[in-house]
Protein backbone atom coordinates (compact mmCIF):
# COMPACT_ATOMS: atom_id res chain seq x y z
CA UNK A 1 0.00 0.00 0.00
CA UNK A 2 1.42 3.38 -0.96
CA UNK A 3 0.28 6.42 0.98
CA UNK A 4 0.64 10.06 0.03
CA UNK A 5 0.77 12.81 2.68
CA UNK A 6 -2.36 14.93 3.04
CA UNK A 7 -0.85 17.46 5.47
CA UNK A 8 2.28 18.52 7.35
CA UNK A 9 2.46 18.89 11.10
CA UNK A 10 3.79 22.15 12.53
CA UNK A 11 5.12 22.14 16.08
CA UNK A 12 7.41 24.36 18.17
CA UNK A 13 9.47 21.17 18.66
CA UNK A 14 11.92 20.88 15.76
CA UNK A 15 14.10 18.14 17.25
CA UNK A 16 13.49 14.70 18.66
CA UNK A 17 14.90 15.73 22.05
CA UNK A 18 12.05 16.90 24.26
CA UNK A 19 9.29 15.38 22.13
CA UNK A 20 6.58 13.82 24.34
CA UNK A 21 6.87 10.03 24.42
CA UNK A 22 3.13 9.73 23.77
CA UNK A 23 0.29 12.00 22.79
CA UNK A 24 -1.45 13.64 25.75
CA UNK A 25 1.64 13.90 27.97
CA UNK A 26 1.97 17.62 27.26
CA UNK A 27 -1.68 18.69 26.96
CA UNK A 28 -0.83 22.40 26.64
CA UNK A 29 1.55 21.82 23.73
CA UNK A 30 -0.06 23.29 20.63
CA UNK A 31 0.61 22.31 17.04
CA UNK A 32 -1.02 22.68 13.66
CA UNK A 33 -2.04 20.25 10.95
CA UNK A 34 -1.50 22.20 7.74
CA UNK A 35 -3.21 20.60 4.76
CA UNK A 36 -1.32 20.27 1.48
CA UNK A 37 -2.66 22.24 -1.52
CA UNK A 38 -4.72 19.29 -2.87
CA UNK A 39 -6.64 19.10 0.44
CA UNK A 40 -7.20 22.78 1.19
CA UNK A 41 -10.92 22.73 0.40
CA UNK A 42 -12.73 23.31 3.75
CA UNK A 43 -15.30 20.69 2.64
CA UNK A 44 -12.75 18.05 3.65
CA UNK A 45 -13.35 18.82 7.34
CA UNK A 46 -17.07 19.67 7.28
CA UNK A 47 -18.63 18.39 10.50
CA UNK A 48 -15.34 18.15 12.37
CA UNK A 49 -16.36 21.01 14.66
CA UNK A 50 -18.67 18.59 16.49
CA UNK A 51 -15.75 16.44 17.65
CA UNK A 52 -13.48 17.26 20.59
CA UNK A 53 -10.70 15.00 19.42
CA UNK A 54 -9.18 13.47 16.32
CA UNK A 55 -6.76 10.71 15.43
CA UNK A 56 -3.69 11.65 13.45
CA UNK A 57 -2.08 8.88 11.41
CA UNK A 58 1.46 9.89 10.56
CA UNK A 59 4.85 8.55 9.67
CA UNK A 60 7.81 8.06 11.99
CA UNK A 61 10.14 8.14 8.99
CA UNK A 62 10.90 11.86 9.17
CA UNK A 63 11.59 11.88 12.91
CA UNK A 64 13.28 8.59 13.43
CA UNK A 65 15.16 7.65 10.30
CA UNK A 66 16.31 4.08 10.60
CA UNK A 67 18.16 1.94 8.13
CA UNK A 68 18.25 -0.89 10.60
CA UNK A 69 16.13 -3.86 9.59
CA UNK A 70 13.07 -4.27 11.76
CA UNK A 71 13.71 -6.47 14.82
CA UNK A 72 11.01 -8.43 16.71
CA UNK A 73 11.72 -6.71 20.04
CA UNK A 74 12.54 -3.24 21.34
CA UNK A 75 13.59 -1.87 24.75
CA UNK A 76 10.89 0.55 25.91
CA UNK A 77 12.27 3.60 27.76
CA UNK A 78 9.49 3.10 30.29
CA UNK A 79 11.12 -0.15 31.40
CA UNK A 80 14.48 1.54 31.86
CA UNK A 81 15.73 0.46 28.46
CA UNK A 82 16.88 -2.95 29.65
CA UNK A 83 13.84 -5.17 29.05
CA UNK A 84 12.94 -6.55 25.62
CA UNK A 85 9.30 -6.28 24.57
CA UNK A 86 7.67 -7.40 21.34
CA UNK A 87 7.44 -4.51 18.92
CA UNK A 88 3.67 -5.08 18.51
CA UNK A 89 3.25 -4.80 22.29
CA UNK A 90 4.77 -1.30 22.19
CA UNK A 91 4.26 2.06 20.52
CA UNK A 92 7.94 2.20 19.56
CA UNK A 93 8.85 3.94 16.28
CA UNK A 94 11.16 1.02 15.47
CA UNK A 95 8.44 -1.12 13.88
CA UNK A 96 7.97 -2.90 10.53
CA UNK A 97 5.74 -0.15 9.15
CA UNK A 98 6.63 3.29 10.56
CA UNK A 99 3.04 4.36 11.26
CA UNK A 100 2.35 6.71 14.17
CA UNK A 101 -1.08 7.02 15.82
CA UNK A 102 -1.94 9.95 18.08
CA UNK A 103 -5.12 11.23 19.66
CA UNK A 104 -5.12 15.01 19.97
CA UNK A 105 -7.55 17.69 21.05
CA UNK A 106 -9.04 19.93 18.35
CA UNK A 107 -8.56 23.58 19.30
CA UNK A 108 -9.75 25.23 16.10
CA UNK A 109 -10.28 24.58 12.42
CA UNK A 110 -8.91 27.49 10.42
CA UNK A 111 -9.57 28.13 6.77
CA UNK A 112 -9.24 30.99 4.34
CA UNK A 113 -6.88 32.44 1.76
CA UNK A 114 -6.36 29.03 0.17
CA UNK A 115 -5.16 27.55 3.44
CA UNK A 116 -6.76 24.91 5.63
CA UNK A 117 -5.40 23.88 8.99
CA UNK A 118 -6.43 22.38 12.32
CA UNK A 119 -4.90 23.77 15.49
CA UNK A 120 -4.55 20.95 18.02
CA UNK A 121 -3.06 20.35 21.45
CA UNK A 122 -1.38 17.39 23.10
CA UNK A 123 0.40 16.00 20.03
CA UNK A 124 3.67 14.09 20.08
CA UNK A 125 4.63 14.86 16.46
CA UNK A 126 7.79 16.70 15.52
CA UNK A 127 7.72 19.78 13.30
CA UNK A 128 7.56 18.75 9.64
CA UNK A 129 6.04 15.31 10.20
CA UNK A 130 3.98 14.10 7.22
CA UNK A 131 0.35 13.32 8.05
CA UNK A 132 -1.52 10.62 6.09
CA UNK A 133 -4.98 10.54 7.61
CA UNK A 134 -7.23 12.27 10.11
CA UNK A 135 -10.21 10.53 11.67
CA UNK A 136 -12.74 11.79 14.18
CA UNK A 137 -12.46 10.34 17.70
CA UNK A 138 -15.65 8.40 18.43
CA UNK A 139 -15.93 7.47 22.12
CA UNK A 140 -18.19 4.44 21.64
CA UNK A 141 -15.64 2.63 19.48
CA UNK A 142 -12.39 4.27 20.65
CA UNK A 143 -12.72 4.79 24.39
CA UNK A 144 -12.10 1.93 26.82
CA UNK A 145 -11.01 3.53 30.09
CA UNK A 146 -10.85 0.21 31.96
CA UNK A 147 -8.77 -1.73 29.43
CA UNK A 148 -5.64 -3.17 31.01
CA UNK A 149 -2.62 -1.26 29.74
CA UNK A 150 0.09 -3.91 30.25
CA UNK A 151 3.62 -2.83 31.13
CA UNK A 152 2.81 0.79 30.30
CA UNK A 153 0.24 0.96 33.07
CA UNK A 154 2.36 -1.05 35.49
CA UNK A 155 5.38 1.24 35.20
CA UNK A 156 4.47 4.87 35.63
CA UNK A 157 6.95 7.58 34.73
CA UNK A 158 8.61 9.40 37.58
CA UNK A 159 7.98 13.01 36.63
CA UNK A 160 10.27 15.86 37.57
CA UNK A 161 9.50 19.13 39.31
CA UNK A 162 10.59 22.40 37.73
CA UNK A 163 12.49 24.82 39.99
CA UNK A 164 10.48 27.98 40.65
CA UNK A 165 13.33 30.29 39.55
CA UNK A 166 13.41 28.35 36.28
CA UNK A 167 9.67 28.69 35.83
CA UNK A 168 10.19 32.45 36.21
CA UNK A 169 12.86 32.48 33.49
CA UNK A 170 10.55 30.53 31.16
CA UNK A 171 7.67 32.96 31.73
CA UNK A 172 9.84 35.86 30.63
CA UNK A 173 10.68 34.16 27.33
CA UNK A 174 7.48 32.33 26.50
CA UNK A 175 3.96 33.68 26.75
CA UNK A 176 1.04 31.82 28.44
CA UNK A 177 0.40 28.41 27.00
CA UNK A 178 3.91 27.87 25.62
CA UNK A 179 5.35 28.26 29.10
CA UNK A 180 2.88 25.68 30.47
CA UNK A 181 3.73 23.30 27.61
CA UNK A 182 7.48 23.61 28.27
CA UNK A 183 7.01 22.84 31.97
CA UNK A 184 4.98 19.75 30.97
CA UNK A 185 7.69 18.66 28.53
CA UNK A 186 10.51 19.13 31.04
CA UNK A 187 8.58 17.37 33.81
CA UNK A 188 8.46 14.26 31.57
CA UNK A 189 12.26 14.12 31.83
CA UNK A 190 13.52 14.38 28.25
CA UNK A 191 16.99 13.04 29.18
CA UNK A 192 18.14 9.79 27.60
CA UNK A 193 17.98 6.72 29.82
CA UNK A 194 20.80 6.29 32.33
CA UNK A 195 21.76 9.95 32.27
CA UNK A 196 22.09 11.10 35.86
CA UNK A 197 24.96 13.62 35.93
CA UNK A 198 23.50 16.57 37.90
CA UNK A 199 25.98 19.00 36.31
CA UNK A 200 25.29 18.03 32.70
CA UNK A 201 23.45 20.75 30.80
CA UNK A 202 20.91 19.75 28.15
CA UNK A 203 19.35 21.91 25.46
CA UNK A 204 15.76 21.61 24.28
CA UNK A 205 14.83 23.47 21.09
CA UNK A 206 11.39 25.12 21.32
CA UNK A 207 9.90 27.65 18.92
CA UNK A 208 13.28 28.79 17.59
CA UNK A 209 14.79 29.20 21.06
CA UNK A 210 16.93 26.85 23.11
CA UNK A 211 16.10 26.04 26.71
CA UNK A 212 19.18 24.98 28.66
CA UNK A 213 18.63 22.96 31.82
CA UNK A 214 20.11 20.42 34.19
CA UNK A 215 18.42 17.89 36.48
CA UNK A 216 19.33 17.28 40.11
CA UNK A 217 17.42 15.27 42.74
CA UNK A 218 14.27 14.99 40.65
CA UNK A 219 14.15 18.70 39.85
CA UNK A 220 14.76 20.63 36.62
CA UNK A 221 16.91 23.77 36.90
CA UNK A 222 16.78 26.13 33.93
CA UNK A 223 20.21 27.60 33.33
CA UNK A 224 19.52 29.75 30.30
CA UNK A 225 17.13 30.47 27.43
CA UNK A 226 18.76 31.70 24.25
CA UNK B 1 5.29 5.92 2.31
CA UNK B 2 5.04 2.31 1.22
CA UNK B 3 3.67 -0.23 3.67
CA UNK B 4 3.95 -4.00 3.54
CA UNK B 5 1.36 -6.24 5.22
CA UNK B 6 2.47 -7.95 8.43
CA UNK B 7 -0.62 -10.15 8.79
CA UNK B 8 -3.92 -11.17 7.25
CA UNK B 9 -7.27 -10.91 9.01
CA UNK B 10 -9.49 -13.98 9.17
CA UNK B 11 -13.20 -13.48 9.79
CA UNK B 12 -16.36 -15.52 9.26
CA UNK B 13 -17.53 -12.52 7.20
CA UNK B 14 -16.32 -12.98 3.64
CA UNK B 15 -18.44 -10.25 2.04
CA UNK B 16 -18.97 -6.57 2.67
CA UNK B 17 -22.68 -7.13 3.34
CA UNK B 18 -23.20 -7.62 7.07
CA UNK B 19 -19.81 -6.23 8.09
CA UNK B 20 -20.15 -4.06 11.23
CA UNK B 21 -19.99 -0.36 10.36
CA UNK B 22 -17.46 0.18 13.18
CA UNK B 23 -15.40 -1.94 15.50
CA UNK B 24 -17.16 -2.86 18.73
CA UNK B 25 -20.68 -3.03 17.25
CA UNK B 26 -20.61 -6.83 17.25
CA UNK B 27 -18.56 -7.57 20.39
CA UNK B 28 -19.11 -11.35 20.14
CA UNK B 29 -17.80 -11.52 16.58
CA UNK B 30 -14.48 -13.33 16.65
CA UNK B 31 -11.69 -13.07 14.14
CA UNK B 32 -8.01 -13.84 13.89
CA UNK B 33 -4.94 -11.82 12.99
CA UNK B 34 -2.68 -14.35 11.27
CA UNK B 35 0.90 -13.12 10.97
CA UNK B 36 2.74 -13.57 7.67
CA UNK B 37 5.78 -15.88 7.66
CA UNK B 38 8.29 -13.03 8.24
CA UNK B 39 6.49 -12.08 11.47
CA UNK B 40 5.78 -15.50 12.97
CA UNK B 41 8.38 -15.22 15.72
CA UNK B 42 6.40 -15.02 19.00
CA UNK B 43 8.94 -12.40 20.21
CA UNK B 44 7.02 -9.87 18.08
CA UNK B 45 4.13 -9.95 20.57
CA UNK B 46 6.04 -10.44 23.85
CA UNK B 47 4.24 -8.47 26.56
CA UNK B 48 0.96 -8.23 24.64
CA UNK B 49 -0.75 -10.54 27.15
CA UNK B 50 -0.86 -7.61 29.61
CA UNK B 51 -3.14 -5.59 27.33
CA UNK B 52 -6.89 -6.12 27.02
CA UNK B 53 -7.14 -4.36 23.66
CA UNK B 54 -5.13 -3.56 20.56
CA UNK B 55 -5.36 -1.23 17.60
CA UNK B 56 -5.36 -2.80 14.17
CA UNK B 57 -4.19 -0.59 11.31
CA UNK B 58 -5.39 -2.08 8.06
CA UNK B 59 -6.29 -1.26 4.50
CA UNK B 60 -9.74 -0.66 3.04
CA UNK B 61 -8.43 -1.49 -0.41
CA UNK B 62 -9.32 -5.17 -0.35
CA UNK B 63 -12.87 -4.61 0.91
CA UNK B 64 -13.82 -1.43 -0.82
CA UNK B 65 -12.06 -1.22 -4.14
CA UNK B 66 -12.53 2.21 -5.55
CA UNK B 67 -11.14 3.69 -8.71
CA UNK B 68 -13.04 6.87 -8.07
CA UNK B 69 -10.80 9.83 -7.28
CA UNK B 70 -11.03 10.88 -3.65
CA UNK B 71 -13.76 13.48 -3.03
CA UNK B 72 -13.80 15.99 -0.15
CA UNK B 73 -17.16 14.81 1.20
CA UNK B 74 -19.02 11.55 1.75
CA UNK B 75 -22.60 10.69 2.78
CA UNK B 76 -22.41 8.79 6.06
CA UNK B 77 -24.99 5.98 6.35
CA UNK B 78 -25.66 7.19 9.89
CA UNK B 79 -27.14 10.40 8.48
CA UNK B 80 -29.43 8.48 6.17
CA UNK B 81 -27.09 8.84 3.21
CA UNK B 82 -28.35 12.29 2.26
CA UNK B 83 -26.03 14.65 4.16
CA UNK B 84 -22.53 15.49 2.97
CA UNK B 85 -19.79 15.42 5.58
CA UNK B 86 -16.08 16.10 5.18
CA UNK B 87 -14.20 12.87 4.65
CA UNK B 88 -11.83 13.75 7.55
CA UNK B 89 -14.85 14.16 9.84
CA UNK B 90 -15.92 10.57 9.09
CA UNK B 91 -14.55 7.04 9.27
CA UNK B 92 -15.65 6.37 5.70
CA UNK B 93 -13.52 4.02 3.59
CA UNK B 94 -13.74 6.52 0.72
CA UNK B 95 -10.77 8.61 1.88
CA UNK B 96 -7.51 9.80 0.30
CA UNK B 97 -5.43 7.09 1.98
CA UNK B 98 -7.45 3.89 2.52
CA UNK B 99 -6.28 3.31 6.10
CA UNK B 100 -8.61 1.57 8.55
CA UNK B 101 -8.28 1.88 12.33
CA UNK B 102 -10.04 -0.51 14.69
CA UNK B 103 -9.85 -1.17 18.40
CA UNK B 104 -10.48 -4.84 19.21
CA UNK B 105 -10.40 -7.04 22.29
CA UNK B 106 -7.57 -9.55 22.58
CA UNK B 107 -8.97 -13.01 23.27
CA UNK B 108 -5.82 -15.08 22.96
CA UNK B 109 -2.35 -15.01 21.47
CA UNK B 110 -1.65 -18.33 19.80
CA UNK B 111 1.74 -19.54 18.66
CA UNK B 112 3.36 -22.79 17.68
CA UNK B 113 4.22 -24.90 14.65
CA UNK B 114 5.61 -21.88 12.82
CA UNK B 115 2.34 -19.98 13.18
CA UNK B 116 1.57 -16.86 15.17
CA UNK B 117 -1.90 -15.39 15.50
CA UNK B 118 -4.03 -13.25 17.78
CA UNK B 119 -7.64 -14.22 18.30
CA UNK B 120 -9.70 -11.06 18.77
CA UNK B 121 -13.32 -10.01 19.10
CA UNK B 122 -15.31 -6.99 18.00
CA UNK B 123 -13.50 -6.34 14.72
CA UNK B 124 -15.04 -4.77 11.63
CA UNK B 125 -12.54 -6.24 9.14
CA UNK B 126 -13.57 -8.52 6.32
CA UNK B 127 -11.95 -11.91 5.79
CA UNK B 128 -8.65 -11.53 3.93
CA UNK B 129 -8.00 -7.90 4.91
CA UNK B 130 -4.28 -7.03 4.96
CA UNK B 131 -3.03 -5.77 8.33
CA UNK B 132 -0.14 -3.27 8.48
CA UNK B 133 0.37 -2.60 12.15
CA UNK B 134 -0.76 -3.65 15.60
CA UNK B 135 -0.36 -1.38 18.62
CA UNK B 136 -1.30 -1.93 22.24
CA UNK B 137 -4.29 0.07 23.51
CA UNK B 138 -3.07 2.41 26.24
CA UNK B 139 -5.97 3.99 28.16
CA UNK B 140 -4.10 7.10 29.32
CA UNK B 141 -3.40 8.24 25.77
CA UNK B 142 -6.24 6.52 23.87
CA UNK B 143 -9.29 6.70 26.11
CA UNK B 144 -11.41 9.85 26.30
CA UNK B 145 -14.91 8.74 27.29
CA UNK B 146 -16.25 12.30 27.51
CA UNK B 147 -14.99 13.56 24.15
CA UNK B 148 -17.82 14.93 22.03
CA UNK B 149 -18.50 12.54 19.16
CA UNK B 150 -20.06 14.95 16.64
CA UNK B 151 -22.76 13.72 14.28
CA UNK B 152 -21.98 10.10 15.17
CA UNK B 153 -23.02 10.66 18.77
CA UNK B 154 -25.97 12.84 17.83
CA UNK B 155 -27.51 10.26 15.51
CA UNK B 156 -27.76 6.85 17.12
CA UNK B 157 -28.57 3.81 15.04
CA UNK B 158 -32.01 2.36 15.35
CA UNK B 159 -31.24 -1.29 16.04
CA UNK B 160 -33.49 -4.15 15.03
CA UNK B 161 -34.87 -6.98 17.11
CA UNK B 162 -34.43 -10.56 15.96
CA UNK B 163 -37.57 -12.73 15.85
CA UNK B 164 -37.41 -15.52 18.44
CA UNK B 165 -38.16 -18.27 15.87
CA UNK B 166 -35.23 -16.90 13.85
CA UNK B 167 -32.94 -16.97 16.87
CA UNK B 168 -33.89 -20.63 17.26
CA UNK B 169 -32.97 -21.40 13.64
CA UNK B 170 -29.62 -19.66 14.12
CA UNK B 171 -28.85 -21.67 17.27
CA UNK B 172 -29.33 -24.92 15.35
CA UNK B 173 -26.79 -23.89 12.70
CA UNK B 174 -24.23 -21.91 14.70
CA UNK B 175 -22.77 -22.86 18.07
CA UNK B 176 -22.56 -20.47 21.07
CA UNK B 177 -20.64 -17.31 20.32
CA UNK B 178 -21.21 -17.35 16.55
CA UNK B 179 -24.95 -17.27 17.11
CA UNK B 180 -24.60 -14.28 19.45
CA UNK B 181 -22.37 -12.52 16.91
CA UNK B 182 -24.91 -13.08 14.10
CA UNK B 183 -27.74 -11.64 16.20
CA UNK B 184 -25.54 -8.58 16.91
CA UNK B 185 -24.75 -8.19 13.20
CA UNK B 186 -28.39 -8.49 12.14
CA UNK B 187 -29.57 -6.09 14.84
CA UNK B 188 -27.30 -3.41 13.31
CA UNK B 189 -29.47 -3.60 10.17
CA UNK B 190 -27.11 -4.60 7.36
CA UNK B 191 -29.55 -3.47 4.64
CA UNK B 192 -28.49 -0.67 2.32
CA UNK B 193 -29.98 2.75 3.02
CA UNK B 194 -33.53 3.32 1.78
CA UNK B 195 -34.34 -0.37 1.58
CA UNK B 196 -37.66 -0.91 3.27
CA UNK B 197 -39.44 -3.67 1.32
CA UNK B 198 -40.65 -6.07 4.04
CA UNK B 199 -40.83 -8.96 1.55
CA UNK B 200 -37.32 -8.57 0.18
CA UNK B 201 -35.02 -11.38 1.28
CA UNK B 202 -31.36 -10.61 1.94
CA UNK B 203 -28.47 -13.06 2.31
CA UNK B 204 -25.59 -12.61 4.73
CA UNK B 205 -22.58 -14.88 4.26
CA UNK B 206 -21.17 -16.12 7.56
CA UNK B 207 -18.59 -18.86 8.08
CA UNK B 208 -19.31 -20.53 4.73
CA UNK B 209 -23.09 -20.50 5.24
CA UNK B 210 -25.70 -18.08 4.04
CA UNK B 211 -28.26 -16.56 6.40
CA UNK B 212 -31.41 -15.50 4.57
CA UNK B 213 -33.61 -12.91 6.25
CA UNK B 214 -36.16 -10.17 5.75
CA UNK B 215 -36.98 -7.12 7.87
CA UNK B 216 -40.46 -5.99 8.81
CA UNK B 217 -41.52 -3.39 11.40
CA UNK B 218 -38.07 -3.19 12.98
CA UNK B 219 -37.71 -6.93 13.35
CA UNK B 220 -35.47 -9.42 11.54
CA UNK B 221 -37.12 -12.66 10.37
CA UNK B 222 -34.74 -15.47 9.43
CA UNK B 223 -36.18 -17.34 6.47
CA UNK B 224 -33.44 -19.91 5.92
CA UNK B 225 -29.84 -20.88 6.62
CA UNK B 226 -28.10 -22.79 3.88
Please characterize this protein's 3D structure.
2 copies of one chain form a homodimer. In chain A, the strands form 3 sheets. In chain A, strands 1-2-7-6-3-8 form a 6-stranded antiparallel beta barrel. Chain A has a 4-stranded mixed sheet with strand order 9-12-11-10. The longest helix of chain A has 12 residues, at 176-187. By secondary structure, chain A is of the alpha+beta class. Chain A is built from 4 helices and 12 strands, in the order E-E-E-E-E-E-E-E-H-H-E-H-H-E-E-E. At the A-B interface, strand 3, strand 5, strand 6, strand 8 and helix 1 of A face strand 3, strand 5, strand 6, strand 8 and helix 1 of B.
> What oligomeric state is this?
homodimer
End-to-end distance of chain A, in Å? 44 Å
Strand content of chain A: 25-35%
Q: Tell me the structural class of chain A.
A: alpha+beta
Largest interface: A-B, 71 and 70 residues
Q: What do the pLDDT scores of chain A average to?
A: 92
Overall number of strands of chain A: 12
The total count of helices of chain A amounts to: 4
Order of helices and strands of chain A: EEEEEEEEHHEHHEEE
How do you describe this structure in short?
2 copies of one chain form a homodimer. By secondary structure, chain A is of the alpha+beta class.
Features:
homodimer, 4 helices, alpha+beta, 12 strands, 226 residues, four-stranded mixed beta sheet, 31% strand
